[in-house]
């Protein structure tokens, strides 16, 4: 059982004891807290199955598919491929076609949608029809990192299971166990930046962002008057970082500013302004093609402006 899942399992199993278990469940919580793992385990438990998701005929998973036919061919050849940004209506239509047939191995079937908040608008509207009139024995598990992005009519038809974030102490212990080879600076940065998400913390460790975190803290301390730290920050981020690394870097910078706000070190207004600007950049990152070097300099400049040294220089 993953950290923080005890209450969710208790609620799920208690519901299963009833004569009529609710047909649609919304698994809500931060990305990386283990909602998808819970959904897979809950589906197997509901169907009394021991096989993995992809091998069970009555567990259907809707998630991001290859972006186009070219990327699909790459997947078929076992090569790295790019995913679509959303779950498409064609996927929902295929699932609905399956629902016109009986389950293969018993009288139950489970549909997992991960993440449901990435459904296209048309796909969400199509899904709503299945939630309104589900076939007997069909259960839906909707994994959602941002439930507010779902249609209110979808949310209203789901029973919500909430997955809390993991406290810092438990996160630190988990990383010490799962990533013993990482240095302490990297683990500390991962715990701080992940904001209670074990999956995000492990991703930070894998991306080896300890040096990046140290440089960000140094910029926040000194203001980087000669731009030297910002140049080193760009080098640490890399010339061609992928989207996952850029996302982690932005999360790390926001975390550094949030820590300063909590400690009330520096100009509160400057910290809030810098944090707001980083939130904007984070929202744009998935769809914009940022130049890595320019983005690193912009992040560094936002951190430098929020530093106490910068505030003194402007007095």
From TrEMBL:
Signal peptide: none annotated. InterPro entries: DNA_Rep/Repair_Clamp_Loader (IPR050238), P-loop_NTPase (IPR027417). Transmembrane segments: none annotated. Gene3D superfamilies: P-loop containing nucleotide triphosphate hydrolases (3.40.50.300). It holds the Pfam family DNA_pol3_delta2. This is AAA family ATPase. It comes from Qipengyuania profundimaris.
